[in-house]
Amino acid sequence: MYCDITVQSAAFDLGAEELALRAHAGDAGALVAFQGMVRAHDEATPLAALFLEHYPGVTEAEIRRIAEQAAARWPLSACRVIHRVGALAPGEPIVLVIIAAGHRAGAFAAAEYLMDYLKTQAPFWKREDFVDGSSRWVEAKASDDAACGRWHD
Amino acid sequence: MSITLLYFGVLKDTLGCSTETLAWAGGTSATLLDVLRGRGEDWSQALAPGKVFRLVVNQQIVRGDVAIPDGAEVGILPPVTGG
Question: B21 and chain A: CB distance < 8 Å anywhere?
């Protein structure tokens, strides 16, 4: 499986990334792209920015490991993951997962699998910076752990 | 002999430290956590045995009690909240 993982502060272009991945997708019959956006959140105080931190080197290796696990479960031909770090404004794209696979079932499932693991296993930490100047590190959510737990056999 | 420690996310703020060099007489991850917990209330609470965090030794996520060699880079990771 072709696999390209990037952690970056810069914005990404979904169309350009999809086109680039298709060159590595072989005779895949399905391509699923998921793009996550920064929500403004339903807090009393609006969000000024979401700040993300990662562990350089370790984070990329962990995402690659997760992608390889996905490729062992479903026949995938290519995958592209981009996760942004640094300060991101509400509405900005934060994460991109593109999966090319023989059939759509595997492509959809692998994209969800990667997202569940990105939320619960990959070393990223989010801090909410509010417009009133206060900030708070986001705590791990039981609902994310539960979503990830469904993949255990 | 020394090791480099890296702290991430909420731990960085709680402990007021992002990276440090620690004199290291040798030992395991359990030894290291005992040393850090001995620094006071903030440290013993943040790194209490019941808290969920992961250790990364020389860029490898480790589980259980592992030896920490001289010169190692040790990352202390609170629960992740990515995606």
Answer: no
CB of B2 within 8 A of CB of B67? Answer: no
- What CA–CA distance (Å, rounded) separates A47 from B66? 41
Q: Are strands A135-137 and B19-23 parallel, antiparallel or unpaired?
A: unpaired
- Compute CA distances A137 → A84, B1, B49, B79, whole Å: 17, 34, 21, 11
Mapping DSSP to helix (H, G, I), strand (E, B) and coil, where does residue A37 land?
strand
Q: Identify the residue whose tokens are 């509400």.
A: A90
* SS3 assignment, position A85: coil
User: What is the structure's pLDDT at B64?
Assistant: 87
ipTM of the complex: 0.91
User: What distance in Å separates the CA atoms of residue A19 and residue A98, rounded to the nearest whole number?
Assistant: 11
List, in order, residues 6 or more apart from A77 with CB less than 8 Å away: A1, A2, A24, A25, A26, A27, A28, A100, A101, A102
**A141: which chain B residues are within 8 Å (Cβ-Cβ)?**
81
Beta-carbon separation of B78 and A123 below 8 A: no
A23-80 pLDDT, tens digit per residue, is 999 999 999 999 999 988 766 788 999 999 999 999 999 999 999 999 999 999 999 9
CA distance A57 to chain B (A): 7
Name the pTM for this structure: 0.91
